[in-house]
Every structure is written in structure tokens, then in C-alpha cells.
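Many introductory courses stop at the sequence. We go one step further.
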Amino acid sequence: MDEVSDSDYDGALVIVTDTANTPRIDDERYTKGDCLIKIDHHPNEDVYGDLLYVNTNASSASEIISDFAFSTGLVLSSEAARLLYSGIVGDTGRFLYPATSSKTFMIASKLREYDFDFSSLARQMDSISFKIAKLQGFVYDNLEVDSNGAARVILTQETMKKYNVTEAETSAIVGAPGRIDCVQSWAIFVEQANGNYRVRLRSKTKVINEIAKRHDGGGHPLASGANSYSLEENEQIYQEIKDLLAE
């Protein structure tokens, strides 16, 4: 990833994409530019930025950006088209998630007309590194599942060090519990360097973004993120998932 110095923010236009609320913005320097734009497809619970471009009917931020480019006549390079296409494919789970619409397919079709190696991109998105494969094995070995299908696993700093993965790289295994037939809703607790936890919440049918909102987070009905500040809060979040599935 490119290194961005503090001076780059002087007089800058800062654009934050695909991030529902401010605690989940990776770089805290986002406020240091002259103008901040939010582009997102999550529910607009945390209203931040000088300009907001939020469309909750879109499948992804990549769909929003692509639609904006096509509707305004902006010129896209083949590399930009490749990245936007991959963003749509990734956020729709290869066009399987409920947010996928006919418009999503139309925009993806337009992006596919650009000159990029589609087969190579598909292979790249479908492959995982050996260390992520090992981490996925850890998730399956340590996944706790109750009788109603509520599941959880905790990835500590020690575990991530053992498998040589970063906090960001753990996003690759967020869908792993959902491949198990008896799992209905799940939480992956990723310990941060400061001892807090980034919580990834997923569900097959039950709406879980209300749980995320109660814990400094938000997102889609079936795919959300939250923040936990103690092991006790981890337990509380998991209990809320269990209670939801017990209804």
C-alpha cells in the first residue's frame, strides 16, 4: 500500500468509501483535509463528512462509484474498471447476496467491456494464501456453535502472530462459519493491538445490524461490523446473537 504522509492531507479532498461509521475508518487523519466526502451503501446512521453520497439500495460502494462515472460521462481506465468490478464481485459475494439487483448486473456488464484479464481476476479473488488457509482451519477447530446456530470465534493477537496474519487479513475468513449448515448467525472477534476487538457480524436470515448499532457499529441487515472494548462485551454480543436466534 502507498505511504501517505501527514503533509498529503494539507488542503486535500478526502474521500471515505464503504465505511458506515467513523470508529471503523482505518486512518484517523481523515479529518485533516479541507473537504471530506462519504460514499457508502450502508444505512446512514453516522452522518459524517461535508458531502455525503449514500445509496442503501446499491450493492456496494463500487457500484455507486461506477454508476456515477457512467451517468456523468467520466472516463474510466481499464485498471479502474477492473478494480470497480472486483469491488462489486467481492461485496455481493459473487452476485449471491440479497443486495444484488438487476442494476448491479447491468453495471458489472458495462465494466466487463473494458480490457482487463477477467480470468486472472477470478482466480485471484477465489484463491487464498496458505497462511489464511491455516487460519481458516483454526476457525473451524475453535468455532463455538449453540443449538440454534449462533456461532463465534475469537482471534487474539497471539493467534494472528502464530499464523502470521494481520488484523486486516482476517477479513478473508469472515464467511467461513457460514459454510457450515447448522450455523445461522455468527461473530468473529478480532483483537486489536490496544486490546479492543473489531467484531465482524454475519447472518443468513436474521437481521443483525441492530446488534451492531448497540456496540458502536452498523452495517447491512445481514452483514455488519461492531466494536467491543472488553471480553465482557464480547460475551454480551454473543448472548444477543443467541437471544436473537432463540426468538
